[in-house]
Design brief:
mainly beta, five-stranded mixed β-sheet, single chain, 40% strand
């Protein structure tokens, strides 16, 4: 696919910013990083032809989630050895521009996790994207590069990367990892200048150690001891009247001062692999691990190691979880990787219901994070079946909507429409 060069769209960009609807979706998991939308009129039922406003083809598979601001939709996209940012018209799905860079050195990833899995983040003036080992980039709404950081190191793991940039006030945060080089970074969103950097020990590439030359080859042996890493995108929350940065690391959940990076508290209880972002509501933070699945809840606002004093509950083993859940009226709703949706009590961690979501596609596995809007939960499976169920202590499936295209992405919502990224297309779903 031929890349569209940046065009002079400054006036249109300004117009789009000034006329931006209240319901922008500026980052992965929305404006508050909690997967919750204020929308009241999203469609519940759709298909390949029903309630489709437009469908824009994408050149390659990708796992990132679209972000929306005003009349623009932004998506990160690999194209061969290119790492790119695509900008579409919200009105009709027309590609307005596409910019990016050619990767300097091919890095490993898993077949189910294409490059450019990190979603963009925007504040209405700039769009910041992470291209992993190739750096952190900032563009304006016309596609003009404002700054770049190519000195962050190599982000190498056999399963790739996924953490997205987070914008808060004048700061941009990035979980640079997992891999042998792992750290949490804060930069000035206007210049890209580093404000603080916290190295995280225990990083690893996930690759098995080199065997002795005369050692027998055991292709079935899995290097479990080296399965460690966090693909978490941190979140900003109000913790006792002050802003806090919550992060899930291998083994723990922690809170940091966003301005300085100083750790305020930490709570142990996660396993070495963490894919989901932390959740927060009612003064409670929830962390969920991946493979082998530990989970915990901790009352926020403490100091130091609060494992023994403020941890509310701990699950030593839970289903595999790639996508993040949502919290609604004292309950957690999550769609697990094996295809089961669950409702948990926030305060106690007790299971309220556990239901398998079955559609018509070959794969019912799920990597999608839950989107909550108007008391309804929206997810999409790897097979392209979109489920809508009530956020209620009593399970009720409202709709199963097949798109017939594979997806590992999460849904976004803005101004009466759902935006769904599959391996083949970008969809805008809404009443015409």
């Amino acid at each position: 696919m031929k890349l569209v060069p940046p065009t002079t769209l400054a006036a249109l960009a300004l117009l789009g910013t000034l006329n931006a609807p209240a319901a922008n979706w500026p980052a992965w998991r929305g404006a508050n990083a909690d997967g919750i939308s204020s929308e009241k009129n999203l469609p519940v039922k759709w298909s390949k032809t029903e309630n489709v406003r437009w469908r824009a083809p994408l050149p390659e598979a990708g796992n990132s989630t679209p972000v929306i601001w005003g009349d623009r939709v932004f998506v990160t996209q690999p194209v061969g050895d290119r790492r790119t940012l695509m900008c579409f018209s919200r009105a009709d799905g027309k590609l307005l521009w596409q910019v990016g860079i050619t990767t300097k050195e091919k890095e490993p990833t898993h077949g189910t996790n294409p490059f450019c899995s990190a979603s963009p983040a925007t504040d209405g003036e700039r769009v910041i994207v992470s291209f992993a080992s190739d750096g952190l980039y900032c563009y304006d709404f016309s596609g003009k590069e404002l700054w770049r950081r190519t000195d962050l190191g190599r982000q190498i793991h056999i399963w790739g990367n996924a953490a997205s940039p987070v914008l808060h006030k004048d700061l941009c945060f990035l979980n640079f990892g997992p891999g042998e080089t792992t750290y949490l970074l804060a930069v000035d969103k206007r210049t890209g200048k580093t404000l603080w950097k916290n190295d995280e020990p225990g990083g690893d590439s996930g690759a098995p150690p080199p065997a002795a030359k005369d050692a027998p080859v055991d292709k079935k042996a899995a290097p479990r001891a080296k399965w460690v890493g966090s693909w978490t995108t941190p979140i900003i929350v109000n913790e006792g009247g002050r802003d806090s940065l919550l992060m899930s690391w291998p083994g723990r959940v922690c809170s940091l001062d966003p301005a300085t990076g100083k750790e305020r508290w930490t709570c142990a209880g996660l396993n070495p692999l963490v894919y989901t972002s932390p959740l927060h509501a009612n003064g409670i933070a929830v962390g969920m691990g991946g493979f082998g699945g530990m989970a915990l809840a901790v009352r926020t606002g403490g100091s130091g190691d609060v494992t023994a004093t403020q941890r509310l509950w701990h699950h030593p083993r839970s289903p595999q979880r790639i996508g993040s859940g949502v919290i609604h009226e004292g309950h957690i709703y999550i769609h697990n990787d094996p295809g089961t949706a669950m409702c948990l009590n926030l305060e106690t961690g007790k299971e309220v219901w556990n239901e398998r979501l079955t559609g018509g596609s070959a794969s019912g596995q799920n990597w999608s994070s839950v989107l909550l809007a108007d008391g309804k939960c929206y997810t999409i499976t790897q097979g392209g079946d979109c489920f809508v169920f009530k956020a209620s202590p009593t399970f009720e499936l409202l709709a199963t909507n097949p798109l017939g295209e594979r997806s590992n992405s999460s849904l976004a919502a803005s101004d009466g429409a759902l935006f769904i990224r599959t391996h083949q297309s970008l969809w805008c779903i809404g009443a015409k």
